[in-house]
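Before a colleague's protein record goes any further, I have to sign it off. Would you go through it and say whether the fold makes sense for this chain? Take the sequence as given and treat only the tokens as open to question. The record follows directly below this note.
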Amino acid sequence: MSTSSAFHSLHPGIQRYLWAEQWEALREVQEMAIPAILPTDRDVVIAASTASGKTEAAFLPALTHLLNGDTDGLIVYISPLKALINDQFGRLDRLCEDLDIPVWPWHGDIGSTTKQRFFRKPTGVLLITPESLEAMLCNRGTSVAGIFKGAAFVIVDELHAFIGSERGKQLQSLMHRMEVVLGRRVPRIGLSATLGDMQAAATFLRSDGRATIVDAPSGNNELQLILKGFEEPPAPQDAKHEEVAPLAVAKHLHEVLCGTNNLIFPNSRREVERYTHLLNEISEQANRPREFWPHHGNLSKEIRSDTEAALKQKERPATAICTNTLELGIDIGAVKSVAQIGTPPSVASLRQRMGRSGRRKGEPAILRGYVIEDAIDSNSDLKTRLRLDTVQSIASALLLIDKWFEPPVAGGAHLSTLVQQLLSAIAQYGGLRAPQAYQLLCASGAPFQGLSSESFVELLRHLGKQDVLTQDSSGLLLHGPIGDTLVNHYSFYAAFVADEEFRIVAAGKTLGTLPITQMLAAGQRILFGGRTWLVEQVDEAQKTIYVLAAKGGSPPIFNGSGGRVHTRIRQTMRALYRGELRPTFLDATASRFLEEGKSAYEHLGLDENVLLDQGSHFLLLTWAGDAANEAIACLLGARDFNAQAGRLGVEVTRGSQTRNQLLEAIAAIASQPAPSSEELLVKAKNLAIQKWDALLPPRLLKHSYASLRLDVDEAFNWLRATGFNVPPTPQP
């Protein structure tokens, strides 16, 4: 390291530590980041692959700054996960103990004694979640300036996990509120392994978007990729049917993974349980010791900890079957390979998962994909005939190879989180006047900039009518009775909430519950218990969906789960159907699935045919992303059509309207200016998708939903570019 100028710019105490730890050289990302961070006069975004040394790239220069100058300085490290805080504490504690710098892990499992010691002398490194930081600002309003007076840096880990989410908007607000109290700018450092749009990441970190970007090369590790297909045979008549393809997948996983450490990602918690059971059952039959461990959010902390411990220890092999709980940077050691069962939630998610493999020098990253398709017969629906899951999985893998990831949805209004931040700020300051609150949260440079003062007043009046807020004789905004109850509940500090479960009721009988995350309206269809149901009524107050059994037609895409699909993925799928792309990573069955899908595409004339008659419904083939498809569905819904977004476009339930009337409606929509969000969502239900949405006035709720879920511009571009040729309606 004698030739490294970055190394020699570090504090001598840190240099000695690195020599003692036998570092041969700084990593490339560290060489790039250290000179960018040390001047402390700018924000910095650091993007590099998993296990590339990003954490040290931020902390080595930040700690150098503390050691060179302000011994009472404070580095605030913000993490999305408690487990990641615990990991970082283990990594930093030995270094910082050598440097005589205290490290303070801070979350719900940390005892009050440790927290009181920090408050007595708030210096060193504070490792904290957004929720704990929210509680600190909310409950210690008069002390906030003293607690953070030494703040030298704010480091945000796993930046991509925050961008575009309620939690991300909360984090932006917390960082802004901290700086308002301090009356100065605190440099921000964002760390991420997966960023599809570096400038969007810089703008998320601070609204001026002027952060220095450190985009380290990802290295030249080889990627070994295979996609395997499995076919589910037709269910025998008059017999209880058990699926055979999942067992075949489990047997292959057991064969290729035994004896090594791996991660397996099915697409739901239910599937995690299914494959854990199957794999352990196979191991027992083979008289092998346990190697397969579950990990998802519904499991207890102890079970998740057992899985993490099994992965970290080196004496015995272990494989975790997990949801996205193991996507982020928890240190679980090196894994040999990653398996993805079913279509990945997103390309960015697939990239994050793949980054867990190939972390040792010279080792390839290994990614195994598994797709299950039903056998084709005379009753097969369009999805099965097109082999949609296979083609989407191939498209995602091709985009991964091309190093494309979904850009973050950074333009959402997130007015649900504004309600929380307003209540929190009122608690912090002991009351605020309306102009002060607007200046703090909505003015230029503030987290909710862009909301007009008129809309803010509309929100305040609505919250007043609901007793969430009240105003004293001097004009000071205070918590009303409902507001007091909300703020004093332990759940207040989280900006997000788990998907709410809706009861599904048919003919007075409860069929079960389903997490609902998208707009619903009467006339739409849902899939539940292996059957298709028609939505008759949505009772939002009672969280109940009343349904009728639906006959005919293809099963709907809507089932209460799954990621949002970007237009680029669907356009890549279309290129595969056209034969423009020829993937080389498919096994024989997956190759057959692709050829069958291409044949169906050609046979049905889907390259030219934009509107398909599917018997029970019409299908608009848009090849657009979910945000555009949902916007088109809303545009049609406002004209009395029952429409919903699907995996190939927009499904329009056949009612009294004819094909020509649908075409006329589309042509009329395309010829007019885009409607307001209030007009667009006039008939929509279940718009309260975020935690505090139920407290918003109707107009602002529609505005917030549209900003987060709909791409009206893309919808109109498709409608206008398609140029439907509408036959004249016969005159009576």
